[in-house]
Amino acid sequence: MKIFLISIFTFMVLNAVELVEVKGIELDMRYASDHNFVGSKIDGYNKAKCLLTPQAYKALQDIESELNTQNLSLLIYDCYRPKRAVAHFVSWASDLNDTKMKKEFYPNVKKSELISRGYIASRSSHSRGSTVDLTIKQLDFGSPFDYFDFISHIKDKTVPKNAIDNRDYLQEIMDKHGFNGYSQEWWHFTLDDEPNKSEYLDIPID
Ligand SMILES: [Zn+2]
Fold this sequence. Notes:
Elements: H1 2-15, E1 20-21, E2 26-27, E3 51-52, H2 54-68, E4 74-78, H3 83-94, H4 102-105, E5 131-136, H5 161-176, E6 179-182, E7 185-191
Bound molecules: zinc ion.
Residues 78, 126, 131, 133, 188 line the site of zinc ion.
């Protein structure tokens, strides 16, 4: 029995996903506030903290240092996202009468199509701890964070030329430090060599 308990304990420790608090990079944790597409604080976001795996944090620190040499800096909107927050998004998406934030975040997309068009999913890479939503504070990217529309697609060419160039620059610097982008959202990145590729966590952010 003792051996059995020890082996369970070892299994849990070996499989524990480490998340650390990101410091020294500017945060605007939208889901811990009312300023997001739902219009209220999201389940699981009890504190406006950015938690990530140490590997993702280290890569972001390197990116921040490189940007700082050009008087630029990161602004982070979302990091690790508990599964209960993703469930909150999905249940909100099914309530078609609640369109409080439509004008700011999805004026051209029917709320009923947010899931089918890939803007809201029932599972998010953010719950694995190495995915982050961010911008470069000083640059214009042609659409705001969480603006659900084709103009937020990385390769959209209807945004102004400087926004196209800025998107290329952001994708390039993130790629250089090991992050992959997401075609429909210029602000969303996942560490390619993420330490936890399969576990979707539901620890609240406290
Ligand atoms: Zn994201």
